[in-house]
Inverse folding.
């Protein structure tokens, strides 16, 4: 590992203030939409008959796929721009810090009612569900892709410069392949996160406005609310079948395929395998499509985009127009941020002092639960993730188990866990920490596995030949190698824990509400009761706490990973 000086302190800048005001404005306008929306909206009845499960499963799967494709497009554009433009990075990364900390329920008034205003009700609710699932998938993928781009080994950048590769060829031949392993693993984690919040995305309530969509999430939530354990278990079984099919036909082939991008000069003893990929690799039709369609299209695209980049600046059509439009858009955003932020501040001024004290006490309680969940998760995911990532024989056996465990929504299991723990001292607090742990530990595990799998095999052989073992091997080799992935996992896990507090601290089961002191419970209860001033104040408090943590702790670790722990 090449050591470099630790960069200067990460300070709060104008980008943080701008993003905070813009978010406050967006939430405020969402609240105004909620107040002006129809007073009685309801979706179709959700039946618990077993015969509807295949149809519900297909509907949920299509929503997840649409959200994932949107997340992938967002990841590639957003992460690339932030990694290559320092000015844009000053705005985009603080914005990402803010966005991944905003609870999914706080997006509801903004997204749902805006979609209903723009589209017919049914289409609007479907689009809102897709966008809400997107908010549980996109952020960790974007963080991982951005961090992969800023930690590309220096010799690879130098090789691209020597061969005078265009920006497009650098992206296709160097940057995207280098980021592929982390992107595949974080895609798996994004699907798991999407399943986790599916219950909130397919069935939700704003005051007396009840929105429902047919799907596995709404089926599980209805079963939990009615206390129907048999339907709950049947829905979970259907979900597990979907997860296993995805693992065998999508994720295992992608993991085996992405292994070819591992930076190593020594052949692995037990590379990841997939029977689906083996069949596809022997397919004559696939070979024909690759030779006659994909490769020619790829070559033509490379030529076209590379030629476009090498044109003289004077030949760019409309370059000044685009710059002017960008400047106007920035000015418009500043105006919206300042005006809307001022309105939001004025709106939450109606929150009383006692309510603010309650918000602060709730924030402290949730913060302690987040720290406890993160500490427990880190204690077991680090050794287990390294063991799986460095042993492909073990990985081939454990990956299906990990994938299923990560994808089963803890929110569906929580009512059962709650019934078991509620009688214990501090049972609800313990149950809340457990649910936050179940919802966030996978962010750490998947990133650590990806980091361990990305370690070149020859580097492992070198450390063994030098006799480096035990704690010294962890200190000088394993921890520095996985540190960038570990930081990404901790950032997304922390944001996920704050998000999970919404469903961990406020639970409805069999017609009875269970809640404990916490910021998540305050947001959930105020959303259900349509107390939008309290919802806005609680959400902005949560965002402020997460952004402070990101800027004071996680961003410093990010910079350390970028500047000190390169495979150079």
């Amino acid at each position: 590992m090449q050591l470099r000086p630790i960069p200067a302190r990460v300070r709060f800048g104008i980008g943080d203030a701008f993003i905070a005001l813009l978010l406050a404005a967006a939430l405020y306008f969402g609240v105004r939409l909620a107040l002006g929306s129809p007073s009685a909206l309801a979706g179709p009845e959700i039946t618990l008959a077993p015969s509807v499960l295949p149809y519900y499963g297909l509907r949920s799967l299509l929503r997840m796929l649409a959200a994932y494709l949107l997340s992938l497009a967002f990841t590639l554009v957003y992460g690339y721009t932030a990694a290559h433009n320092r000015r844009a990075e000053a705005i985009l990364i603080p914005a990402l810090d803010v966005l991944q900390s905003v609870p999914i329920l706080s997006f509801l008034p903004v997204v749902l009612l805006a979609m209903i205003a723009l589209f017919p009700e049914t289409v609007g609710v479907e689009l809102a569900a897709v966008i809400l699932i997107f908010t549980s998938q996109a952020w960790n993928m974007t963080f991982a892709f951005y961090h992969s781009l800023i930690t590309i080994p220096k010799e690879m950048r130098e090789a691209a410069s020597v061969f005078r590769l265009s920006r497009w060829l650098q992206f296709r031949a160097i940057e995207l392949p280098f980021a592929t392993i982390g992107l595949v693993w974080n895609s798996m984690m994004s699907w798991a996160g999407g399943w986790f919040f599916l219950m909130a995305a397919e069935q939700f309530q704003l005051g007396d406005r009840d929105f429902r969509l047919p799907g596995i999430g709404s089926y599980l939530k209805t079963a939990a609310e009615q206390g129907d354990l048999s339907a709950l278990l049947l829905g979970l079984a259907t979900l597990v079948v979907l997860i296993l099919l995805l693992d065998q036909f999508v994720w295992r082939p992608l993991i085996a395929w992405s292994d070819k991008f591992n930076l190593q000069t020594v052949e692995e003893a037990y590379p990841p395998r997939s029977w689906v990929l083996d069949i596809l690799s022997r397919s004559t039709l696939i070979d024909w499509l690759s030779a006659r369609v994909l490769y020619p299209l790829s070559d033509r695209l490379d030529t076209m985009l590379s030629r476009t980049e090498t044109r003289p600046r004077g030949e760019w059509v409309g370059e000044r127009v685009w710059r002017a439009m960008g400047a106007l858009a920035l000015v418009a955003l500043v105006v919206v941020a300042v005006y809307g932020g001022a309105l939001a501040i004025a709106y939450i001024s109606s929150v009383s002092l006692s309510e603010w004290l309650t918000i602060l006490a709730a924030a402290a309680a949730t913060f302690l639960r987040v720290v406890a969940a993160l500490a427990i998760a880190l204690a077991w995911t680090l050794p287990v993730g390294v063991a799986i990532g460095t042993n492909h024989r073990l990985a081939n056996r454990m990956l299906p188990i990990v994938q299923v465990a990560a994808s089963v929504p803890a929110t569906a299991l929580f009512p059962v866990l709650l019934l078991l723990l509620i009688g214990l001292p501090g049972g609800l607090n313990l149950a809340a920490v457990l649910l936050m742990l179940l919802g966030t530990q996978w962010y750490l595990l998947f990133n650590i596995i990806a980091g361990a799998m990305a370690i070149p095999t020859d580097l492992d052989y070198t450390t063994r030949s030098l006799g480096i073992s035990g704690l010294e091997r962890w200190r000088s080799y394993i921890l520095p190698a996985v540190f960038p992935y570990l930081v990404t996992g901790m950032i997304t896990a922390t944001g996920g824990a704050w998000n999970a507090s919404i469903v961990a601290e406020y639970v409805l089961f069999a017609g009875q509400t269970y809640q404990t002191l916490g910021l998540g419970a305050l947001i959930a209860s105020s959303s259900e009761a349509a107390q939008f001033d309290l919802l806005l104040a609680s959400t902005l408090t949560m965002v402020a706490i997460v952004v402070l943590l990101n800027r004071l702790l996680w961003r410093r670790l990010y910079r350390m990973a970028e500047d000190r722990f390169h495979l150079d």
